[in-house]
Design goal:
Blueprint lengths: L15 H19 L11 E6 L5 H12 L3 E6 L12 H9 L5 E6 L3 H9 L4 E6 L5 H12 L9 E5 L6 H13 L2 E5 L16 H7 L2 E4 L18 H8 L13 E2 L23 H20 L3
Parallel strand pairs: 1-2, 1-3, 3-4, 5-6, 5-7, 7-8
Helix pairs in contact: 1-9, 2-9, 5-6, 5-9
């Protein structure tokens, strides 16, 4: 019996055994794919994708995940000739796509309370592909799967989340997942970008990198800031000098793992040379994100 016979809207509803099962399924899919044995033809299963915000990695990896499983895919993307441009609301768009009776729906949207409530009440399984600043569960799962895939002892990891923590849905879901596994984590970034009333330690970059075994710089979510035109951190050179990951700042990091959920703004949170650092796992995260989304679809729909 699949462990995820329901929607995946956040990680707070999962237990460690369920996440571990997802890791095992994702690894099995990887092995079958590498051996050219992944011949799962589930053409009777359909996945609808409705994205109201831009996406590259999440959108493409869900599509590849479904294709690998032999599913049919219906895609509706914001700004691509949808009726949202005519005044239709996000809720009405979702209701109309649900009326087509897909087996599973993948949705990305902003901070819309009414849509939160609608998706939580739906009988059709819904997968959250990023909701405002609230969460991005499949990204967090894929990122932790990246560490798991290297046979690292997860309980001994120390994760430093760097940058725009308070506005990041990836940071929100990453914290939920790290708590499930009891993994220690800390923040680094401008004080006014940190979560309010949090007891999580906040480090300067040098001290944080000395402490961490994993570092994860985040993109600045300017689209969710109210002071985007007046913030002193609009100065990319200033931000990179204080919080940027580059060959100089990484001297204090040691033999850890460098990650990023993307997209990367080079010379802001990352220097381009970091991509070729032997500790960097940015592209492995993309591959593992696709495998994790394959595992999630497999478990929700009972495909294996």
């Amino acid at each position: 019996m699949p462990l995820l016979k329901r929607s995946l809207l956040s990680l707070t509803t999962l237990e460690q055994k369920e996440v571990s099962k997802l890791f095992e399924v994702a690894n099995k899919i990887r092995t079958l794919k590498e051996r050219n044995q992944l011949r799962l033809n589930h053409f009777e299963k359909s996945m609808a994708m409705v994205f109201f915000e831009p996406s590259t990695r999440t959108r493409a990896s869900f599509q590849f995940a479904a294709f690998n499983l032999g599913m049919r895919v219906l895609s509706q993307f914001y700004g691509e000739s949808t009726s949202v441009a005519k005044g239709e609301t996000e809720i009405d768009t979702v209701l109309n796509i649900l009326a087509l009776k897909p087996d599973v729906m993948v949705v990305r949207y902003g901070d819309i309370d009414e849509l939160d409530n609608l998706l939580a009440s739906e009988k059709t399984p819904i997968i959250n592909a990023g909701s405002g600043r609230r969460g991005h569960p499949t990204q967090a799962l894929g990122d932790l799967f990246t560490l798991w895939s290297e046979n690292r002892d997860l309980k001994n990891e120390r994760v430093l989340i760097i940058g725009d923590v308070g506005h990041s849905r990836v940071a929100a879901s990453t914290q939920e997942l790290l708590k499930i596994f009891g993994i220690e984590y800390a923040f680094c970034g401008p004080c006014d970008w940190m979560p309010k009333n949090s007891s999580v330690p906040i480090y300067g970059l040098k001290k944080g990198l000395e402490w961490a075994t994993v570092c994860m710089p985040l993109r600045i979510q300017w689209e969710r800031h109210t002071d985007r035109e007046t913030s002193p951190w609009r100065d990319a050179k200033k931000y990179h000098k204080e919080f940027g990951i580059n060959s100089d700042s990484l001297k204090s990091f040691g033999d850890g793992i460098i990650m990023s959920p993307g997209p990367i703004n080079f010379s802001v949170e990352f220097a381009r040379e970091v991509l070729v650092d032997k500790r960097c796992r940015v592209f492995e995260q993309v591959t593992n994100g696709m495998l994790m989304r394959s595992a999630i679809l497999t478990e929700i729909l009972g495909l294996m």
